[in-house]
Amino acid sequence: MQAVGTFTKELWEAAFPLYQQLISCRFVTELVAGTLSKESFSHYLTQDILYLKKDAEALGMVAARSQNDTNRDFFKRLEKDGLEVEFVLRDEYLKHFNLQEARVQSKAFADYSNFLLSHAQNSPIEVAYAALLPCFWVYGAVANTIIQKNVSSNPYQKFIDTYTGDEYQYYTQKFIEIVESNSVESEHKVQVKEAFVEACKHELAVYEESYDIALNLIVKYENRP
């Protein structure tokens, strides 16, 4: 998953400091080491299921707004795949990890979902594309780091295995190409870059919230009378 032109190269360079924070944050490093608390993992997985529904909704919006038939079909496929992943995580992974389904979105995940939906509905289409791209590109890059550094006998191995697959890589690369072709001559380049970087900040925020949830639980437990 690599930049395919000058503009997507600029996007990656603008977001690279955030990518470095992502791969070095405590949630990712402890997930890789297999030492992440169950509370943190539970928060992330259960909230991710709710988030994927909103992400699919946003993908459906940009599909409907896309003037190019190829792009429209591409985003419709991503919408469908996102709902299928949400279904598998809810019906298989919650049971595997013995977790209860979340009913309400937490602040960080809700903020990210609202950000995507707002851009998908209201922004110039190339800006909307850029807002949605980090969920695939930056998330995928973080996933590659997790896969490469993963320890053996990791209790979260089943979840980590969801990061693998050539199809995911293919769709992400196609998404990068779409953003490049739609943005390289756009009058909204500044907005495109701002949306991309802002989405990366949301990616970091959901990891940080998921890690901090466990810390808050521990503090509450330690302070009980």
Structural class: mainly alpha
The amount of helix comes to: over 70%
Query: What's the number of extended β-strand segments?
Result: 0
Tell me the number of helical segments per DSSP (H or I, 4 or more residues long): 10
Characterize the main sheet.
none
Oligomer: single chain
What is the string of SSEs from the N terminus onward? Answer: HHHHHHHHHH
**Shape by Cα distribution:** globular
Which percent range describes the beta-strand content?
A: under 5%
Distance between the termini: 52 Å
Radius of gyration: 18 Å
- Unreliable parts: none
Query: What's the mean pLDDT score?
Result: 89
Describe it:
With 225 residues, this protein is mainly α. It has 10 helices and no strands. Helix 2 runs parallel beside helix 7 (137-149). The longest helix is centred in the last third of the chain and has 34 residues, at 189-222. The relative contact order is 0.19. The mean pLDDT is 89.
